[in-house]
Amino acid sequence: MRADAPGAGGVWPQPVLDLLAKGGDRPVFEHGARVLSAAQMSALIGRCAAGLRASGVRPGDGVELRLGVTPEAFAVIVAAFAVGACVSGGGGLAGHGGLVVDEARLAALVATPAPPDEPLIAAGRLDDMARVIHTSGSTGRPKGCAQTYAAMSAAWAAHPDRWPPAIRELASRLHRFLVFGSLSSQVMLEYATLSLAAGGTLVVADPPGFPDAIVRHRASASVITVGKLNKLVRGQRALPADLSSLQALMVSGSPLPAARLAEALDVLGPVVFHGYGQTETGMIAMLTPQEMRDSPAALFTVGHPPPGVDVSIRDGELYVRTPAQASLYLDDPAESADVFVDDGWVRTRDLAELDERGRLRLVGRARDVIIVQAQLVYAGAVERVLTAAPDVAEAYVVGRPDDDTGEAVHAFVVPARGCTPDAGILCAHVAAELGPAAAPQTVTFIDDVPVARSGKPDKSALSP
């Protein structure tokens, strides 16, 4: 569902530019011993914007970022949006040209003098692509989710008056928000923007390990994957660290079983926010710690979709419309047509239902994927690599919950006649072809695969 106008606050990222320009001495970014005020960050963004324009970047042009997590990296991300570019965190604009910003070019941009006393006004055009978010599935071909400036301008993160109730509760806890990984990723940029709008400070977690980064930086909030959450819970049971500063952990990337969620709340306290969303849509629903404590049944759901998010369940599959959703997959019309469907609906390919209180419960996936450490692993891709081995006749891949990785890949292999495949070699081959996340955690050799009534392989009957 595309926004038709930027609304109050102007085109993205004008709200961020405005709050920084008016923020004065308020600390907004902490990187080791360096602490930048809002005024300093505003000036840094202005220099980066001037540098981008001097490099020939105009509205609609591509800017591909290959940067670490620093104040300068954050500044150039905001600046690239401010000049109206199509921004990618790397790989999403392959074949489309544009300016590549690495650390060397960033230094030159930062050194560019900005026009004196001239406020920076966002130049994005509503129908232009604002960013392409590179999705790292194991299909052998990356997909780029393309989001327009209209969609980004309709997002809620920078606008306190648009915050849904769960986000309003979360925002009150983002005093010192840990940033790591890629500042241009959807999750990190969204929560960084929310933190700034809530009056918080972005704190670089370097290195980003838990619980050390929380303790070292006295962090109040962070994003965490299911595997890292489970590891943190185990660590706190065995040798508790001082997490008294922690107020919010936003769990993302993988399904979280209700029992594990309850355990995390019990060990860590009322700090766990359980969210559900996709790269294509942004946030679809979120549960607060209080909701989960008040209603044990809520642990089996991902909460109520907030106002502005429409949901439709069609033959068990969830379709959604969100204000800031993507429009298409770059250079992939067939997949775009399959996912971005009639009247602005996005097909999530997740199976869902609503409970008696209208909360969304996920019950499976229509697409055969496994989420390992927040990375999508397509079962079909792993099966194709395995069956390409000369000593393998058939291969079937399933995902199961895993304490360390959220979910794990498990393979079931029917050996070719007279052959004895080596499980280690098969796993190494998958890792080399599709990446380490796709490598099976276990390989089980079977004589044949169970068959469902339909006559098709019944992978639900396979158990590692």
Summarize the topology:
Blueprint: H1 14-21, E1 27-31, E2 34-37, H2 38-54, E3 62-65, H3 71-82, E4 86-88, E5 99-101, H4 103-110, E6 129-135, E7 143-148, H5 149-153, H6 165-171, E8 176-179, H7 186-197, E9 201-204, H8 212-217, E10 221-225, H9 226-238, E11 248-252, H10 258-268, E12 272-278, E13 282-287, H11 289-294, E14 310-314, E15 317-321, E16 328-329, H12 333-339, E17 346-354, E18 360-365, E19 369-372, E20 375-378, H13 379-387, E21 392-402, E22 406-415, H14 423-434, E23 442-445
Parallel strand pairs: 1-9, 3-4, 3-5, 4-6, 8-9, 10-11, 11-12, 22-23
Antiparallel strand pairs: 1-2, 6-7, 7-16, 12-13, 14-15, 15-17, 17-18, 19-20, 21-22
